[in-house]
Amino acid sequence: MEIFWWIFVGLIAGALGKFIMPGRDPGGFVVTILIGIAGAVLAGYVSQMIGLSEPGETATLWKTIVGATMGSIVLLIIYRLIMSGRTRH
Fold it and tell me: What ranges do the domains of the chain cover?
């Protein structure tokens, strides 16, 4: 059942990240979910590093979605920086 939670959070966070940062980004539905899931993992890791949360701590739905969305935006920025460097020749 936990996998459905990750997919739900990934879909919402990935879609919000793409909505906040419109532009040409990779993929469709599945990639949006994967960006959201990766954003959630990134946000969880960073929040533990700076002491905002403890390992194994359960966050509220809104805190999870906000953190995952912020992580998704960071990943989209990194993706765009990498891709813009590749296309300039």
Answer: 2-87
pLDDT tens sequence across 44-58: 888 888 877 777 767
Single pTM value for the model: 0.76
Nearest residue to 42 via CA among 76, 15, 8: 76
66-70: long-range pairs with CB below 8 Å, 24+: 67/39, 67/40, 67/43, 68/9, 68/10, 68/12, 68/13, 68/36, 68/37, 68/39, 68/40, 68/43, 69/12, 69/13, 69/16, 69/17, 69/20, 69/36, 69/39, 70/39, 70/43
- Quote the Cα angle for 5-1-11, to 5°: 25
3-state SS, residue 1: coil
